[in-house]
Design brief:
The complex is a heterodimer of chains A (115) and B (238).
Chain A: H1 2-21, H2 28-42, H3 46-59, H4 66-69, H5 76-81, H6 83-108
Chain B: H1 3-14, H2 16-36, H3 45-60, H4 64-84, H5 86-91, H6 93-98, H7 100-124, H8 129-135, H9 142-152, H10 156-181, H11 186-208, H12 210-234
Classes of the chains: A mainly alpha (115), B mainly alpha (238).
């Protein structure tokens, strides 16, 4: 567990450093994610050491959004004033986004790979 | 409250322990309620935890900054979890390489649709400029979205809230929308959930099907990448 956590933090740190150093528009953790995927291509054995911690982290992903979500208490006034445009915008865009992504994928994937 | 209890509360409320514990307990209650409703997407654990904690803060008169000083340790792991998505990404690398075009186009199409319709609808209904700018990156995962909004001149903490509302909404309605539309391919379902509802959609996708989860994680990463690069240019027209 400790080894996996160390690897993940090291990649996060490397990603953060690269993002700052090269002034990339992409946040550090996303760079770290790509770096980890590339490292796994070179050393697939690393996957076995990471699996437990990664699965634990990803199956509880929702928890990690809670602290930022509680920030809603800062914006109750604005949400009350603009609740209609915000609610309708979120609903319409979420449904539209889901449908467009799923239908594009169905349309563009070659037939033999469709399931 | 009696005097010794009040003193104890004042002491504890100032440190991170209470807020860290409260965050975990609130989320556990959310998970328990979801299990009790046999995985009903409407009993979303993130939503339940946020509501419970907002009520607790209001009841105890604790400002958000004081809560966040404790809960930030959980918040920090969001970055680490984003890195961890590299593993499912690698697992799907062969499929990704073979279908890089269709996958990128699907994610980009969904991403532009979600951001575009959100801004246009909110604008048409009279939302303020700050809200519009904070709304644009809402389909991207929190740390990325907050960074983008800051660059655009929106309100980062409002974006965080809109991101999470979007994620919760997406996780709740995705199953129903995709069933109604007749999309059965787990890859397409996961890709849609991850593109629109980022990490919360991904968490939901993992819960439903591992393949959907991997594609959701992939879509979340790619969408974050694309939006971070494209949106600062697109927002010049706002």
């Amino acid at each position: 567990m400790l080894e996996a956590a160390t690897w993940l933090l090291a990649f996060q740190l490397a990603g953060e450093a690269a993002a700052r150093l090269f002034q990339l528009p992409v946040p550090g953790p996303v760079i770290g994610m790509v770096m980890l995927a590339i490292a796994l291509m070179a050393y697939p054995a690393l996957a076995d050491r990471l699996r437990g911690v990664v699965d634990g982290l990803l199956s509880n992903l929702g928890l990690l959004f809670v602290p930022a979500g509680v920030g809603v208490s800062l914006h109750l006034g604005l949400l009350e004033r603009e609740w209609l445009p915000i609610t309708v915008a979120l609903l319409v865009s979420t449904v539209a986004g889901i449908l467009v992504t799923a239908f594009l994928m169905r349309l563009l994937m070659p037939a033999e790979d469709r399931r | 409250m009696s005097e010794p209890f009040y003193k104890l509360w004042v002491y504890l409320a100032a440190g991170p322990l209470v807020w860290l514990t409260a965050t975990l307990i609130a989320y556990q209650i959310g998970r328990y309620l979801q299990a009790r409703t046999r995985g009903n997407p409407a009993a979303n654990p993130v939503l339940i935890a946020v509501i419970l904690l907002v009520l607790l803060l209001a009841r105890t008169d604790v400002p958000y900054a004081q809560y966040f000083a404790g809960a930030q340790f959980v918040h920090f792991l969001l970055g680490t979890a984003t890195v961890a998505l590299g593993l499912p990404l690698w697992r799907e690398a062969a499929m990704l390489r073979r279908h890089i075009g269709p996958l990128l186009l699907s994610i980009a199409g969904g991403s532009v649709t979600a951001a575009g319709t959100a801004v246009v609808v909110a604008w048409a209904l009279g939302a303020s400029r700050a809200t519009l700018l904070s709304l644009a990156p809402k389909s991207v995962t929190t740390p990325i979205a907050m960074g983008i909004t800051e660059k655009l001149g929106g309100i980062p903490s409002l974006t965080a809230v809109l991101v999470i509302l979007t994620g919760v909404l997406g996780a709740i309605i995705a199953t129903w929308v995709l069933d109604t539309a007749g999309i059965r391919d787990w890859r397409a379902r996961g890709l849609a959930a991850g593109t629109v509802a980022h990490g919360i959609g991904t968490a939901r996708a993992y819960q439903v099907n591992p393949t959907a989860g991997a594609y959701a994680g992939l879509a979340m990463g790619v969408n974050g990448l694309l939006t971070a690069i494209v949106l600062p240019y697109a927002a010049r027209w706002l």
